[in-house]
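Sharing a chain and its predicted structure for anyone who wants a worked example. Both blocks are below, sequence first, tokens second.
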Amino acid sequence: MKTKTLLIMTFIATLLIGLTGLGLILVDSSAPVLLTLAIAVIYTGLVSAFAAFPRKENAAEAKQEADIKLRLPIEDELKVISYEAEKSLSAINDIKGELHELNQYLNQPTIVASKLSNKFHQPECRFARNISKKNQVWFRSKIDAAKHGFKKCHLM
């Protein structure tokens, strides 16, 4: 039955039971009045419960509706997870770019030596400025230059 029909039946039954209780009060019979009112309250509660929790005609329809109710919060949660994953991926790509730039910076040669001498210098050194482009040999570190047989400039 539909909820509306159940509510109308509840109203009619409660009205009839209530009128019966009023009739018993007029007759001055206290025991049946309390029993009649208790029956009216119990009946109203039961019918209201059936109206509040309607049954589905078949189990498949009930399962489908339950699945839809479950799916909505899950879909919302998946959207949040997807958004957070996109933000994380963006942050990871930003970090990758910064690491690449840092790697390029760290791999830049910072020590210069001349093919014609056995000394290495920092690029700002006055002796390094005198080395011609064709005779320059660049190293990433002092250790690299020393490994290739060059010695540290006395100004370092």
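Comments welcome. Residues 50 and 57 are 14 Å apart (CA to CA).
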